[in-house]
Amino acid sequence: MHIQIITDSACDLPKARLEALGVKVLPLYVTCGEHIYRDGIDIQPEEIYANMKKGVVYKTSQIPYQDYYDCFKTYAEADQPALLLSFSSGLSGTYQTACLARQDICRDYPKADIQVVDTKAVTGGLGMIVDVVAEQAQQGMAMQDLIQLTNHCSAHIHHIFTVTNLEYVCRGGRLNRPSAWIGNALKIHPFMIVDREGKLEITDKCRGEKRLVKKFVDYIETHSYDISNQKIYFVDAYQDRLVDAIQKELTSRYGNTNFSRKLLAPVIGTHIGPGSMTVFFFDEAPL
Q1: pLDDT of 174-195, one tens digit each?
Q2: How much is the pTM?
Q3: Cβ-Cβ contacts under 8 Å for 221 (sequence gap 6 or more)
Q4: CATH architecture of structural domain 4-156
Q5: 281/33 Cα distance (integer angstroms)
Q6: Domain map (residue ranges) of the chain
Q7: Could you tell me which CATH number the domain at 157-282 has?
Q8: Are strands 4-8 and 82-86 parallel, antiparallel or unpaired?
């Protein structure tokens, strides 16, 4: 019996790929006033971004304890080993909640083989790790080897982010309005990474999209392996211009056309809004 891989909806991997890999996805929650939605089930990213452009403010909340417990219970009762690849503990409390649920399942079902790993990754970074690990799980890799593989991938995945419209960050209360107005007026865009502790960090600012594109491409060049062939994963919220410009530059410089792209899930998108973009790649081969 192969090991069941579980993740959450912070994983920006295409639905068809998740289904092909047999990955179980637990939804995070999106709230708007008194309304509570399950991400990807009750509400879709397209609806969220369309409403955000109209001024609607959304918030996200972590997966409840009971959702984790019920999921783990299903596999424990079936004697099915399962491995949860969790959204970064540096950005959410989901990992800690999952660990509490696992602890209680192992108490209630002593023979259960349920493991939880903090990937320290999010969105496409989490998705790339899930893709690698779930493929190996399908091929029969043992639990400890899967955990080791997950930790290796986590140590070598890179996340880079930007926001081209600071209005949405302001609406969410993460930036004051004068700073957002000045930043937008001067076309200042933050350059952000997820560090090795899984926390989001602003490392630079670029004025104008041409400088921003150069910053992204130079960073990829400095930090990636096999830049001519490696898959580079773009996850964005309607940021065609920047995505196209970066892909064009990577193709021009290195001949790389191995790109994948997906719409950004709400867990990050509700905080940074339409016009945001993220890029993911490895600095070492995952296997």
Answers
A1: 566 766 676 777 788 999 999 9
A2: 0.94
A3: 227, 253, 254
A4: 3-Layer(aba) Sandwich (3.40)
A5: 36
A6: 4-156, 157-282
A7: 3.30.1180.10
A8: parallel
